[in-house]
Specification:
alpha+beta, 3-hydroxy-3-methylglutaryl-coenzyme A Reductase, Chain A, domain 2, Alpha-Beta Plaits, 16 helices, 11 strands, 21% strand, disordered C terminus
Length: 418
């Protein structure tokens, strides 16, 4: 029995190729022990001690096979808090402290000041205007005639397909199937609501069942790939920008003239920076992000709360809009067309990530299901708004370089208004 061998004997078997690193969990029936041995082996072959990698609160028996494989430990990222941030939404209504896991100096301070300005101005109003996770298989047929017939068949039998897709899931609900054609290729973009889960795996399983049903009834069609890149997952793209994926969220605030005056700027000053930088500059660059730094805030929240970090790519697409009002106030909004978040599944159950979701009052399944994820999306959007308010304001005041000199260099920290 492998578990009865000494560490040196196990390392010897690994070196001889008699035991693979990925086989340790099953061989030892203990992923915590397997993690220690893998780490010891990597230390031996690289000559580098990984003591800090081994210091973690994670129970690897709970995450191996669910979140990760071939574990050797964990990476730690500093977490800061921004807030209080007042959020007024359909699901989030209160004051929140935003956890931000980052290694970028000045980011937490930036969001913190934006939160202060927004809260003093009455809060951020957030609203989810679209909700649905997608998966788009690509199917080939003999001709364009068959492609049109396939789409007509799908439309005519939507209710049957819906029943099959939802048959094995408690939370997946098929909203629509949107077709796209290129020659004799057909993409069927399935859109589901997924309760409080981000739902990518859920809709993949449901779509697989639906596609098998379609092909069994339309034998001229052949599945090429269950994901045909029109979903679109983990790639910047126009489809999600226009049609949405996950949650489409808008968060807005009005900053009074009196607050702007305290910072020595006018609504026109700040709006000009937004127009020339975020809108015109982004247009010149053909960017999918007409904003200052959505990705900064979204990545930091994703890491802190156990979201799929790769989905920062499409989740951080969006537009910042600023408009001077006749009374001297400044209207500010951010629009996130494809915010992909959940409060169950994925990494949300990891120890520290769970605590941060609990701190926000959104961990687990909502009552009714789906409301926790919607609440979380409203909070995330408000945090992104805070980051935009501050950065555009800092640029208007020509503070950006000074802020990074004070908070982002040499790890000396300090206190700044930025």
């Amino acid at each position: 029995m492998v578990e009865e061998l000494s560490l040196e004997d196990i390392l010897t078997k690994i070196e001889r190729g008699e035991l693979k690193l990925h086989e340790l969990d099953k061989a030892l029936n203990d992923s915590n022990k397997a993690t220690e041995i893998r780490r010891a082996y990597i230390e031996k072959v690289t000559g580098v001690k990984l003591d800090n990698v081994g210091r973690t609160v994670i129970d690897f028996n709970a995450v191996v096979g669910r979140n990760i494989e071939n574990t050797i430990g964990a990476a730690q990222v500093p977490v800061g808090i921004a807030g209080p941030l007042r959020v007024i939404g359909d699901y989030a209504n209160g004051t929140y402290y935003i956890p931000l896991a980052t290694t970028e100096g000045a980011l937490v301070a930036s969001v913190n000041r934006g939160a202060k300005i927004i809260t003093e101005s009455g809060g951020a109003r957030s609203k989810v205007i679209n909700d649905g996770m997608t998966r788009a298989p690509v199917i080939t047929v003999p001709s364009i005639v068959d492609a049109v017939e396939l789409i007509n068949w799908v439309n005519e039998h939507f209710n049957e397909i819906k029943g099959v897709a939802e048959s094995k899931s408690r939370h997946a609900r098929l909203i629509n199937i949107q077709p796209f054609i290129v020659g004799n290729n057909v993409w069927l973009r399935f859109k589901f609501t997924t309760g409080d889960a981000m739902g990518m795996n859920m809709v993949t399983i449901a779509t697989d069942k639906a596609v098998k049903y379609i092909l069994s009834n339309f034998p001229r069609a052949r599945l090429v790939a269950l994901s045909g890149n029109m979903c679109v997952d983990k790639k910047a793209n126009a489809v999600n920008f226009l049609l949405g994926r996950g949650k489409t969220v808008v968060s807005e605030t009005v900053i009074p003239k009196s607050v702007l005056s305290e910072w020595g700027v006018t609504a026109e000053d700040v709006a000009e920076v937004n127009n020339r930088k975020n809108l015109l500059g982004s247009a010149l660059a053909h960017s999918y992000g007409f904003n200052a730094h959505f990705a900064n805030i979204i990545a930091a929240i994703f890491i802190a709360t156990g979201q799929d970090v790769a989905q920062v790519v499409e989740s951080s697409m969006g537009i910042t809009w600023m408009e001077p009002l006749d009374n001297g106030d400044l209207y500010v909004s951010i629009t996130l067309p494809s915010l992909e978040v959940g409060t169950v599944g994925g990494g949300t159950g990891l120890p520290t990530q769970r605590e941060f979701l609990q701190m926000l009052g959104v961990y687990g399944s909502g009552n009714p299901p789906g409301t926790n994820a919607l609440k979380f999306a409203e909070i995330v959007a408000a945090a992104v708004l805070a980051g935009e308010v501050n950065l555009v304001l800092a640029l208007t005041r020509d503070e950006l370089a000074r802020a990074h000199e004070m908070l982002g260099r040499a790890g000396k920290g300090g206190v700044s208004k930025v």
